[in-house]
Automatic annotation (TrEMBL):
Annotated ranges, domain N-acetyltransferase: 1-167
BP GO annotations: response to antibiotic; siderophore biosynthetic process
Database matches in Gene3D superfamilies: 3.40.630.30
InterPro entries the UniProt entry points to: Acyl_CoA_acyltransferase (IPR016181), Acyltransferase_MbtK/IucB-like (IPR019432), GNAT_dom (IPR000182)
Pathway recorded for this protein: Siderophore biosynthesis
Full protein name: Acetyltransferase
Length: 168
């Protein structure tokens, strides 16, 4: 498995993925999301977008965002819990390209590998914030070593804030 930065040439592929039902269920409007990703690629957003590939085939999308860079509106209005996390925290989001790959252990495997890379880069407070209704994602993230943050339970709105615990 490899991770590579998303480029402008990847936007048509991501547009296709964002139009798929299992993406539309949890992501926003496809055009809006593509605009955000374009901003990342072109340096207007500090979030780092990646495609992950297995045997050279793009199999999904993963991104890393910095808590400190998201302590502004509109993020604070939607996620005031950001203020309760350490400045050096980073968040991760991921989606598998094909629905046929859901519930097969791929997401948790990808997430473990990506977290290992982040830890090599010195990141020690890594979060993920799934919708609690996305039980498949919550299970995958738990398999990858993420646990709910008890101090924030009930205060994070429509997300379940989970932190990676390397000892798990």
């Amino acid at each position: 498995m490899t991770f590579r930065p998303v480029t402008l040439a990847d936007l048509p592929l991501l547009a296709d993925w964002l139009a798929r039902p299992h993406w539309r269920e949890w992501w926003g409007d496809a055009e809006t999301e593509l605009g955000y990703i374009r901003d990342m690629i072109e340096g207007r957003d500090t979030t780092e977008p990646f495609l992950f590939e297995i045997a050279g085939i793009p199999c999904g999308y993963i991104q890393m965002w910095r808590i400190a860079d998201n302590r502004v509106e509109p993020w604070l209005g939607n996620a005031p819990w950001i203020l309760d996390l350490p400045d050096h925290s980073v968040g991760v989001d991921l989606s598998l390209a094909d629905s046929a790959n859901l519930s097969r252990g791929i997401g948790s495997t990808v997430l473990r590998a990506f977290v290992a890379l982040l830890r090599q880069r010195g990141q020690d407070f890594i979060i993920i914030d799934p919708d609690p209704a996305n039980l498949r994602a919550v299970r995958a993230y738990a398999k990858a070593g993420f646990r709910p943050i008890p101090e924030l339970e009930g205060r994070t709105g429509d997300c379940l804030l989970m932190r990676h615990h390397p000892e798990d």
